[in-house]
Amino acid sequence: MEVRLYFYIMNVEFSFKIKTKSYESSITNTNNEMLLMSRKQNYNKNEKKIEAYGEFWMIAFADLQPGQLSIRNGNDYLPITGPCGVLIGNYSIAEFQFNKSEIFWYSVSSFKRELPLEFNKKIILFEWDKKIPENLDNIFDSIKKTKNKTEIKMQKNSSAVAERTKKIIDESYSDILLINNLAKNLKYSRSVMTREFVKTYGLTPIEYRQKVRIYKAIRVLSSGASVTTALVESGFSSATQFFYQFKKHIGTQPFNYKYFK
């Protein structure tokens, strides 16, 4: 069942729509610092997706039917049903299991506002009242006050190797640094570093860095910058690789995420 929300927005800075083979999105940014998105997404088969937004954060809302979606919590998968929200903090890694279905969901974020410190690098699942608050402060206060919430554990197991690797990537993802050199700087072999990272977070260090770079590029593009600027600032040295990775992770080309003033 689709939940329809109506946003009464004043002082819109920009708005655009994106349509791909698997989803349709409507994105609006306002000068009250809120980035609002609604999306209809089709999953033609059961699939696992790992999301990593880097410095970007998102709070997503949906009214889900039983069996549509689960989120990994440590080594277990937690089913998500009914009206709910999930806060995906900056530099967190969230793993979802989608079953074949069509899902309507909405999200709130910001290019200007940082998350409150207590939400940094966290994933929080919470009960949703089917209302989108009018501003970010209301959203943050609502999450803080609700008793029906669960902090999701993004690590499958504890690994100092994986944690050190992630920390370095988070701090230097836009640098032109080969993964072999990253491992060497940390005094690990590449195979050990990669194995520990996969065991802990579910993806390789290269895959994680690519995801973080792509969402940095989206943030730059959505500010009105050129595709070339987004490519450079996100850490890609090759336009071919940038376009390939963008299409792979987002399902469309970078210029579709650029608004025109």
Account of the protein in words:
The structure is a single chain. The protein is α+β, with helices and mostly antiparallel strands. The protein folds into 2 domains: 12-152, Jelly Rolls (Sandwich); 160-257, Homeodomain-like (Arc Repressor Mutant, subunit A), CATH 1.10.10. Helix content is 30%, strand content 31%. It contains 7 helices and 10 strands. The protein has helices at 136-145, 160-172, 179-185, 190-201, 205-221, 227-233, 239-250, and strands at 12-19, 23-30, 35-43, 47-51, 58-73, 76-88, 94-98, 101-109, 123-127, 149-152. Strands 1, 2, 3, 4, 5, 6, 7, 8, 9 and 10 form a 10-stranded antiparallel β-sheet that branches. Helix 2 packs across helix 4 and helix 5 (205-221) packs antiparallel against helix 6 (227-233). The longest helix is centred in the C-terminal third of the chain and has 17 residues, at 205-221. The radius of gyration is 18 Å and the shape is globular.
Low-confidence stretches: 1-10
CATH superfamily of the largest domain: Jelly Rolls
- Approximately what portion of the residues adopt beta-strand conformation? 25-35%
Briefly note the structural class of the backbone.
alpha+beta
* CATH topology call of the largest domain: Jelly Rolls
What series of H and E elements makes up the topology?
EEEEEEEEEHEHHHHHH
**Major beta-sheet overview:** 10 strands, antiparallel
The end-to-end distance, rounded to whole angstroms, is: 36 Å
The total strand number stands at 10
Number of helices: 7
